[in-house]
TrEMBL record:
GO molecular function annotation: UDP-glucosyltransferase activity
Gene that produces this protein: LOC107819698
Keyword rRNA processing applies: no
InterPro entries linked: UDP_glucos_trans, UDP_glycos_trans_CS
Pfam family, one: UDPGT
SUPFAM superfamilies xrefs: UDP-Glycosyltransferase/glycogen phosphorylase (SSF53756)
Enzyme class: transferase
Native species: Nicotiana tabacum (Common tobacco)
Name by which UniProt lists this protein: Glycosyltransferase
Length: 477
């Protein structure tokens, strides 16, 4: 009896960073000859098509297709960090019956295609694991958060059992209370984000594997701990670098386009072209964080007073609680135009690769952290949410490639840290960052740890034609 040909369904979390990572993975799968369906929300697909060449870029892969699903929210909903819980629960209500239907059916929208033989959802979509197990379709979640945060998630059940959560007065060791994803946690039983994390952790042993965007030389000790919960863990990052390396290997054009849901202002690159080497600090708080006017002013004063040039991404919805900050941004731009440049969104990979950039003031999102590591750029970390809080601690205390400034928004401290990163301790930070950058590049090269892990993942996905069978790979764990 013939077995179905491999057909992977990718289902990302409906925010910028996970979509970016999943699209990189989708293209790597396409290059490996797999059939790929990418399930995006209607809202985000419209933004992708408006701001990128993603449609034409994937047209070169005849076995790839986009599918869309409603996130269950009205179009006018801002879908910001404040509404994140609402977005996740609303999407789940739509996605559960949709996934069940698509996995039971071998054709959809009148287009006959091979049945889905493997689902790769974001790790947060724990319900996809149970649906896959129920129907007999293997599921390998892709956890797009940092592995150090995933490790904390995996520890939460034991912390609860030991009555360490809710947190007591203080915690010793590497992680402090303020470094935890839920550092203000009062009642884990009623906190929705903690409950989602617990459900995600509970689903991991029921999965057919786990994909992480990291590499062995960065997260080896943590990966050993994670593999005690899920032996079949594939560390295949840094994904954006892995994709570029594979495209170069196959002598295919490396696209100049990103996977951005925002319109990129490429004048930022022209401005950087006119700046001295390693003289600029890049400032970006990602796609979801919001700041008060007071916080923005503290950062602005600290940056200006440092005397260091800076390129600042100031999204139109960065200012908390206000529809637009156009006039405010205009006034800030006028007050620092001699040494600074402000844009609403930037082509971040290109910016970090630019020779004029000497450091990165970041929210410590995992994609941003990996992009900074690849380019060997030290970081000042002002973490806001969930995995960012753990990641920022690792940047400063474990990898020694920057400083952790979370929960501090004071112009004098900002000024001092910018000077430390860009002048006083520049050589020390640069040396550590460049060492990790070289290790990242080695990991995705022929025979590197991530190169081999991706090959194992592809081989294992190809074996999943027999529905419901566990992976029997000899190359991970």
């Amino acid at each position: 009896m013939d077995h179905p040909s491999p057909h992977v369904l990718l289902f990302p979390l409906p925010i910028q960073s996970p979509i970016n990572s999943m699209l990189h993975l989708a293209e790597l799968f396409c290059l490996a000859g797999l059939q790929v369906t990418f399930l995006n929300t209607n809202h985000n697909q419209k933004l992708l098509l408006r701001h990128t060449n993603v449609e034409s870029r994937f047209r070169q892969y005849p076995r790839f297709r986009f599918r869309t699903i409603s996130d269950g929210l009205p179009e006018e909903n801002p879908r910001s960090s404040v509404q994140f819980g609402e977005l996740i629960s609303s999407l789940q209500a739509v996605a559960e019956p949709f996934l069940r239907e698509i996995l039971l059916s071998s054709s959809s929208d009148g287009v006959t295609e091979p049945p889905v033989t493997c689902v790769i959802p974001d790790g947060l979509f724990y319900y996809a694991v149970d649906i896959g197990n129920e129907i007999g379709v293997p599921v390998i979640p892709f956890d797009t958060i940092s592995p150090c945060c995933l490790w904390v998630y995996l520890c939460i059940p034991k912390l609860i059992q030991a009555e360490e959560i809710p947190f007591k007065a203080g915690m010793q060791g590497l992680l402090r209370r303020r470094d935890f994803p839920f550092y203000r946690l009062i009642d884990y039983a009623t906190d929705p984000y903690c409950q989602i994390a617990l459900k995600e952790v509970e689903s991991i042993p029921r999965s057919n594997g786990l994909i992480l965007n990291t590499f062995e030389d960065l997260d080896g000790p943590l990966l050993s701990l994670i593999r005690s919960h899920c032996q079949q863990t594939y560390a295949i990052g840094p994904l954006h670098l892995h994709l570029k390396t594979k495209l170069a290997e196959k002598r295919m054009p490396i696209s100049a386009s990103s996977n951005s849901l925002w319109e990129e202002d490429h004048s930022s690159i022209q401005w950087l072209d006119a700046q001295p080497i390693e003289s600029v600090i890049y400032v970006s708080f990602g796609s979801m964080a919001t700041l008060s006017k007071e916080e923005i002013l503290e950062f602005w004063h600290g940056l200006v007073n440092s005397g260091i040039r800076f390129l600042w991404v100031m999204r139109s919805n960065l200012l908390r609680g206000e529809e637009s900050n156009h006039q405010f941004v205009k006034e800030l731009s006028e007050g620092c135009k001699e040494r600074a440049y402000i844009v609403s969104w930037a082509p971040q990979e290109k910016v970090l690769a630019h020779s004029a950039i000497g450091g990165f003031l970041t929210h410590s999102g995992w994609n941003s952290t990996m992009e900074s590591i690849v380019q060997g750029k030290p970081m000042i970390c002002w973490a806001v949410y969930v995995d960012q809080r753990v990641t920022s601690r690792f940047v400063g205390e474990v990898w020694k490639i920057g400083v952790d400034m979370k929960d501090i928004c004071d112009r004098y401290i900002i000024e001092k840290m910018v000077k430390d990163l860009m002048v006083t301790n520049r050589d020390e930070f640069k040396k550590s960052a460049e060492k990790l950058s070289n290790l990242a590049k080695e990991s995705v090269g022929d025979g590197g740890s991530s190169y081999n892990a991706l090959q194992c993942l592809v081989d294992d996905v190809k074996k999943l034609g027999r529905k419901g069978k566990d992976i029997k790979s000899n190359c991970i764990g």
